[in-house]
């Protein structure tokens, strides 16, 4: 994504301040997130990378207070959406944040879609949850969203069930339902990992296009540093629940400060900085 010139000075839409997330298990307490500070501005894409178990998903889910409690305990810090601490909101307000404020796209659309409900109805439902829309308005908005994410013949697809769609189309449906309520922030957690390579590319291009059109703040979690180089403005590298390095993608990839970032880059030969 091209770097939006005013992004660094713009007020952050989403901000993690010294976030601490524990999972209290019978055997031990896992300190999954240990004082994370991150922010994303409107129109900006922040990629979060790091090894498995480094706390990327636990951090992202905190933005909607979606880590399962128990075993999750929010042990410290704040998550500000437009300056309001999501972790301190009453359940009613939290429901408004989920969807209208922040939406999420996950890796596997099959587990996020209801197999027994037509896909169009599920997209419409995502809008209806936020109130104020008649059935007809929600249907029209859902058709528009299906069209916008590049699903051909939306009227026909609207009536189909998830199993009648390919993996790529299902992921497009998930993106449509994430965007139908026009969220300020989109969180995409490994959104293309389950798809084959050409479909991955199409979905990434779609996300870039939608982000530009709507000026959303995007938090993008991925293992693929090549994807980061192509899609993100800034990158945060996580390890053991901490951010070990953050900065503009070009700068971090050209001159990584942390040894761990250098190791990650070395594992992606085409991105390895010249010695
Ligand atoms: N619901 C949960 N219950 C118990 N432990 C959890 C839960 N969710 C995450 N954890 C633990 O918190 C730590 C961070 O997990 P997290 O899912 O955030 O990692 P991640 O960086 O997203 O990894 P991956 O790249 O594999 O998705 C891990 O040790 C994980 O086992
Ligand atoms: Mg994860």
Chart the SSEs and their pairings.
Elements: E1 12-24, E2 29-41, E3 45-50, H1 56-62, E4 72-81, E5 84-85, H2 91-101, E6 102-105, H3 109-112, H4 119-128, H5 135-148, H6 154-158, H7 167-179, E7 185-189, H8 197-214, E8 217-221, H9 225-231, E9 234-239, E10 242-248, H10 249-254, H11 259-266
Parallel strand pairs: 3-8, 3-9, 6-7, 7-8
Antiparallel strand pairs: 1-2, 1-4, 4-5, 9-10
Helix pairs in contact: 4-5, 4-7, 5-7, 7-8
Bound molecules: adenosine-5'-triphosphate and magnesium ion (MG).
Describe the structure.
The structure is a single chain. By secondary structure, the chain is α/β, with parallel strands linked by helices. It is built from eleven helices and ten strands. The strands form two sheets. It has a six-stranded mixed sheet with strand order 6-7-8-3-9-10, sandwiched between helices. It has a four-stranded antiparallel sheet with strand order 2-1-4-5, with helices on one face. A hairpin with a 2-residue loop joins strand 4 and strand 5. 44% of the residues are buried. The N terminus is likely disordered. The site of magnesium ion has 3 residues, from helix 1.
